[in-house]
Each structure stands twice: as structure tokens, then as C-alpha cells.
Here is the input.
Amino acid sequence: MKVLVTGGAGFIGSNFVIYMLNKYPSYQIINVDALTYAGNLENLTAVQDNPNYTFAKGDIADSAFVEGLFQDGIDVVVNFAAESHVDRSILDPQIFTKTNVLGTQVLLDAAKKHEVKKFVQVSTDEVYGSLGETGLFTETTPLAPNSPYSASKAGGDLIVRAYHETYGMNVNITRCSNNYGPYQFPEKLIPLMIANALNDKQLPVYGDGLNIRDWLYVEDHCSAIDLVMHDGVSGEVYNIGGNNERTNIQIVKTILEQLGKPESLITYVQDRLGHDRRYGIDAAKITNELGWKPKYHFESGIKATIAWYLDNKEWWQRIQSGAYQEYYNRQYASRLGN
Ligand SMILES: Cc1cn([C@H]2C[C@H](O)[C@@H](COP(=O)(O)OP(=O)(O)O[C@H]3O[C@H](CO)[C@@H](O)[C@H](O)[C@H]3O)O2)c(=O)[nH]c1=O
Here is the structure.
């Protein structure tokens, strides 16, 4: 089986590449990544010499490049490649549409032409918008994205759906809740708060800190995609969630407590524009129909994650010393009053 994984040098993608090579020693994994700021080949050091692993650098929105990838035959495409950070999408929205909508379509066109057996679109619960205090997102919740990021993911999803309806392509769309775990870029809530706390820097909590996210350990996300890739029913959407709803302030306090750092580092800052209040996933469909079961509860997942960031300080410190600093200042300087 030849699997084309796009975005395999990013956080979830690299965890998936490693997971698949370990679990299926006979599969060939072709990792395609544009190596933007969020992609890092160091994430894949453990598998770089594996004969079943190959890497190609390029952009999924580049048709000629993508066409070349399919020349030797591909059985399955798993599309992780995306611009994924909501705050960046508020600052610079256009690249989100290019990669997440056009990039998805370019991949679909090549997959259709080369009669790929399955196309898995890795998407997000953010396409459903925001929940009130009760209720959960199901696969039939209407799409109501609120940020340029989530709108671009919803756009990509709709094109995937259309290629199934129009051309009969065998597709699945997965929609996950907030992931966390090893190799997450330190611009997202959990790794940013761990890194700032370890550096005794302020922890910028948006608004009142009471927005709720439903946390999913990345390995559990990988096992869910593995199931969908093999057993997903053509044309179906599967929600994937950890059933671990927490307010942001609970997350931040947990991190501080586990690192033995003071709560005085918490700094409430100006809210994110259009900030979704609550996400919560109903994962009954993938659980009942495909037999998915997450291994991690939040308590074990956050321990493993903090331990990883403590063991891999060099990794995130190197990231933070580059262009990241410019982004951080742009995003936080006025919020933090610096
Ligand atoms: C970076 C940052 C975030 N936050 C808040 C905003 C959110 O309510 C919450 C989580 O923020 P983020 O880590 O940026 O994640 P969020 O916006 O929920 O989106 C994530 O989760 C989505 C799935 O729900 C994915 O589709 C996105 O790619 C991923 O980025 O923490 C803060 O309070 N302070 C911060 O500095």
C-alpha cells in the first residue's frame, strides 16, 4: 500500500507518519510538505532512514508538482497539509484560502486522474462554528465557520464532498477537536503556555479565559484516521474528539501547577477577534461504527506532553529563536503592553 501523506512534517502529520510506519511495516509512506514555518523535518528523525519512507518538498497548490507525485502510483491520500493557526488567519487570511481550498482541489484533481482508491481529508470541528453552554457537534451539524481559517477548511471540505457526489470518488472527511502532544508548534495554546512558563514569561490568556475546547491527544487522533483510512464508508464524515472539555484557564493552571510555576505569570489580554466560545465533539459515530477508542484521558495526555516539552527544550527553543519571534511580537506585543 502506498500512502501519500501531505503536511507530514507538521505536528499531526509527523505524528501520523511515525504511527503508520511503526504499525504497518509493509506500507510505503510518501511525505509531502512545503516546509513552511510550521513544518520541521527534525520531527521525523526517527524514520528518516526507513526504506519505506520518502520525502518530497513542495506545495499542494502547485499542480505540476502534485502531478509528479502521482506518477508511480498512489493508493491512498491523507491530506493534513494546511495553514492551521486561527490567530495567523486573522492577520493574513489569503494564504489560508490558497493552501486549504485550492491546495485541496489540486490534490483531488490529481487523485481523481490517477484513480486513487481513497482520499482522506483531515479537517476540524471549527467548521461547525461555536457552541453555547450545552450540546455537541455531530456530523450533521450545519457548517458555520467563523474565522478565515475555519472558513477555508470548510471550503476544502465542501470541494471534497462535491468530488464524491459528482465523480463518485471514495472520500472521507474527518473533523477533530483540539489536538495536543509532541511536536506541536509553540504558537498553539498548550505548547505556548508550557514554553512561556518554562521561560518565566507572561502567559497571555485571551478574554476571560472561559472559552472551552475539547482536547484530543495526537496519538488518539492518528489511530482514528488509521481506522477511517481503512474502514471509512465512502462519502462519510467522521467527528473525532477526546471528550475532554476544559476552559482555557483550567488548562493554563494545570500546566503551571505541573511545572511548579506561579499563577502570577497568567496575564489576561485582549480577546481574539470572532473568538469561538465552545467546541465539543460527539464522537459516537466513529466509536460505534468503526470501533475507535481513545487511549488517553486529558490527565495522562497532558503529563506525557509536558514531559516531552521538558525533554525536547532544544527543539522548541530553536523554533522560538527564528522568524517566530517576529510573529510573537506582532501577535502579542500590544496585547501584553510591551
Ligand atoms: C494561542 C493562544 C490561544 N488562546 C486561546 C484561544 C482558544 O480559545 C484556545 C486554543 O487556542 P489555539 O491553540 O490557537 O487553538 P484553536 O483556536 O482552538 O484551534 C485549534 O484547534 C482546532 C480544532 O478545534 C484546529 O482546527 C486548529 O488548527 C487549532 O489551531 O486558547 C489563548 O487564550 N492565548 C493564546 O496565546
User: Anything to note?
Assistant: The chain is about 40% helix and 15% strand. The longest strand covers residues 118-124. The CA atoms of residues 131 and 278 lie 5 Å apart.
